[in-house]
Amino acid sequence: MNNYIEIRENAYLDSVTLMLLSRKLIDVEGIPNANVSMGTDHNKSILKMNDFASSEIDNAGPNDLIIAFSYEYEETKDQAMKVMEDHFNQSTGMDDDEEYSPHSLEMALKIQPDSNLALISVPGENAAYETEKCLEKNMNVMIFSDNMDINEEKRLKQLAREKGLLVMGADCGTAIINGKPLAFANCVRKGDIGIVGASGTGIQEISVAVHKLNKGISQAIGTGGRDLSLEIGGITMLSGLEALMADPETKVIILVSKPPAKEVAVKLLEKIKETEKPVVVHFIGGNATEVEKYGGIFSENMEEAAVKACKCLDDSITDEFFSKQIDIDKTAKQEIEKYSPEQKYLRGLYTGGTLCKEAILMLHKKIGVYSNIPLEKDYRLKDSKKSEKNTIIDLGEDEFTKGRPHPMIDPASRAERILQEGDSKDLRVILLDVVLGYGSHEDPAGAIVDSIKKVQEKYKEDGKHISVIASICGCEEDPQVYTEQLKKLEDINVIVPPTNAQAVKLTEKLMDL
User: Fold this and answer.
1) What letter does residue 315 receive in the DSSP assignment?
2) Rounded (5°) CA angle 182-188-193
3) Cβ distance 283 to 294 under 8 Å?
4) Residue 42 has what pLDDT?
């Protein structure tokens, strides 16, 4: 196997583009390993770990583009290079009639002086500098970049709050501002419900459910995953909550987050008392009594958060809106009858972190769930690449994404893991999420169909049956088209409940040993 390494000096690309380019190369037949990244120290260490060591990489600077991939034959290398060049030609080619593309913030503001929001996607060590420049020009900021120093994040959020601005992030993957989806987000209709979320797929799952309930989103403000930590103190969620409280287009507010620090949760709940607008609170693993004490509407899961928010606008909506779309008891009975006695275990393979956490929370007390993001330390996997008993994995965690794209962008790692799990002879259920929308793979269902079929066939050859359950977080209006993704799964007998919560409830029934 040979390595191709190329350094392009001062050819900066944002992280989303880098992940997409890496995926394009891996999609070339005969390219087992590829990494397109900027020459930061962090990225160079990942390249070395992936057997791309060279003096060229050592000498690359943080603004230099590194193209690295493995290949066996010259024809394969040539094909990979054509893929890269085609991408760059498409990206840089401009017709005479096209608008001028600015190369600095100052130039952009000369062209569009009324801009008040910037999306930053640069190496984490540079993100603070770029954010501060935007704040100085009275612009709100969404920071897609991760690996920002937490002290810098707090300082910039405090500065933004003093100026009446928002800093969404760092590591903010989802927002919908004035009807425009940013980064990983879905094509949902505009409406009266505002969301502030410290979780990207949490915002996606809730906004999609709201859309399916025929309501819409006024604003969806991401905060970044660390915002509700004790160190940051919920600065952005507090500012976002205040903004929605003051927004005449927002009639109902939803707060969603993985478990916040207790002191931060209390501070946010205290703020709820200052508004007459209904506020639905879904802090994963939260306490109903605590939320209701402050006048909030408690929600146990993301589906419920969407339903309760929509009911505040339309009392004809029932709690059973989604549960009526699948007969869980009947489906479970039909599936359980097909299992053999030795089939006992569950494997959950998630691309969305909050969807994964919701599944673990709903199932852990009943069956005990091992994970790389466990509820209890005794249930942490010794090796995230090897499942134990009942296991649910977040494939978007750092140990899986170092040196390769996030699985929402490149589902190949999950397709491989499905095959790996299929080697076990004692599984009852494989549980999956399929996340649509901007930023996600163009065909996430299609990318895992072959792996699912191989596992199903393997079990059938052994005289067994395995249940594959998948929820689709997406809308008909998304680029991937919900019904097309649904058909690909249902055509191979995957059971597709309407929400992640319903998928997990069905799984719970199937695991009733």
Assistant:
1) T
2) 95
3) no
4) 78
Q: What is the pLDDT of residues 308-335, one digit of tens each?
A: 999 999 999 999 999 999 999 999 999 9
What does the radius of gyration of the chain's CA atoms come to, in whole angstroms?
23
pLDDT at 291 over 70: yes
Q: How far apart are the first and last CA of the chain?
A: 48
H or E segment to which residue 38 belongs: strand 34-38
Q: What is the 3-state secondary structure (H, E, C) of 99-131?
A: CCCCCCHHHHHHHCCCCCEEEECCCHHHHHHHH
Report the predicted TM-score, pTM, of the whole model to 2 decimal places: 0.88
Residue 58 structure tokens = 């050592």
Q: Give, in order, the Cα–Cα distances in Å from 212 to each of 216, 317, 474, 498.
A: 9, 12, 9, 10
Tokens (6 digits) for 333: 């009975």
Q: Angle 171-176-178 (CA atoms, 0-180°, nearest 5)? A: 140
Cβ-based burial of 25 (10 A; exposed 0-12, middle 13-18, buried ≥19) = buried
Q: Using an 8 Å Cβ cutoff, are 305 and 256 in contact?
A: yes
pLDDT band at 133 (very low <50, low <70, confident <90, very high): very high
**What is the C-alpha separation between 138 and 166, in angstroms, rounded?**
10
pLDDT in tens, 229-260: 999 999 999 999 999 999 999 999 999 998 89
- What is the arithmetic mean of pLDDT over 96-117? 79
Residue 3 three-state SS? strand
